[in-house]
Amino acid sequence: MAATEAFSRRLSAAVRGLSGAWYGRHMAAADRAIRSRFPLVDLVLEVRDARVPAASAFAPLRRRSPEPDRRRLVVLNKADLADPSETERWMAYIKQTSCSCVALNAHSREGIKELLNAVRARIREIKLGESDCTGTVLLVGIPNVGKSAVVNAMHQIGRIGAAEKGKLKHAIVSSHPGETRDISGYKVASHPNIYVLDTPGVLSPVFVNDESGPLLALTGAIKDSMLQGSEIAQFLLAILNSREEYKEWENLNHVGDMSSFGHATSPSSHHNKRQYASDHTQDFVVKAVRQALFDTISSFKGAVANGNELRRLIECQFASLQETFRVSARLSKDIHNVVAMKLINLYRTGRLGRYTLDRAPDVRKEIAS
C-alpha cells in the first residue's frame, strides 16, 4: 500500500541518516574475525529472524552461485512470532534456492532437537559418515535474532545426552542488540563431537535495499537509542492498519475478557491499579491495547490508502494508546516515545499477533530466472 510505503520511506531515511553508526569498532573487528573463520569450520549455521527472513540475512553469506550450499544451514528463529504460512513459504524458497533450512522457537525443546538432528546429519554427511569425528559449526547472524538463545538451548539439550556432564557454560542472552562481544565455543553433541562457535551479531553498515532498514529497526536489530521510537511505532501502526489481522480482536473483550481489566480499575483494587497500571505486559492491558486499536481502525471513516488520512488515523491511535497505557503528560516529557516503545515491545514479543514483514518470493519464478 502506497500510504504504508510513505512511513517506510521516512523511517528508511532516518536509518540512512545514521550512516551505519551501529557498525562500530567492535562490530568491524567481529566481522573480520568471522570472515576469517569461514574456511576453517565444517558448517555455518546462519540464524535469521523468521519475521524478516530477507532483511535479517547475514550479509557476508549472500551468495551468487545457483547451486545450494551444503555447508550452510539457515535457522529461522522466532517462528512463534511469524505468520506460519509465510514461514512455510520461506522455508521452501530457501531450500530450493540456497541451502537447508529449519524454523523454530529457540525456547522450544522440540525445535532445538530438530535443529540438533539436522546439524548432526549434516556433519556426518560432510565427514563421510564417520561416527567419532569432530565437527565445528560457526553460528552467525545479525544482532538480536536470538543466536545466543539458540546456542544455549543446543548446548543444554546436547549435553544431557553427552557422555560427560558438568557445569554448563551459557552465552549471554539479551533483548538488546550487540551484547555478545567475543567468539565462544560450546559443545552441543557427542558421537560425533560437535562444537558450536557463537559469534557477535554483525549488521552491515549498508543494506541491499531501502526496505531493510525500517524492518530491522522494528524488529530490534538496530538499537532503539539510535532512532525515534515514535517513527518506528508509526511504521508499525501503518502496517497494522493496512492488514486484516486486527479484525480478529473484535470479540476479545467480551464480559469475561473484560473482568480482569475492570477488576484492576475498580475501587476495591486501588492498590493493584497502582501496582500494575503502568505494566504494559499485563494481559488486561494487552487486551485493552488490542481493543483500542480495533476500535480506532473499525470506526475510522477516512481512506486508509490515503497517506494524509492514514496519518490522521495514527494520530488518533497514539492518543487512544496514551490513555490505554496510562501515560500521563505530567510524568513524561516525550509522551509519544513512551507510548511508542510500549507498543513496539508488545509487537516484538508477539502480543499483537504473528506478522511476517518480508514476503517470500515465488520459488518457481526465482528458479526460472
From TrEMBL:
Subcellular location: Mitochondrion
GO molecular function: GTP binding; GTPase activity
UniProt xrefs under Gene3D superfamilies: P-loop containing nucleotide triphosphate hydrolases
Principal location class: mitochondrion
Key word Hydrolase present: yes
Swiss-Prot/TrEMBL GO biological process terms: mitochondrial translation
Keywords, sorted A to Z: GTP-binding, Hydrolase, Mitochondrion, Nucleotide-binding, Transit peptide
The name this protein goes by in its record: G domain-containing protein
Organism of provenance: Oryza brachyantha (malo sina)
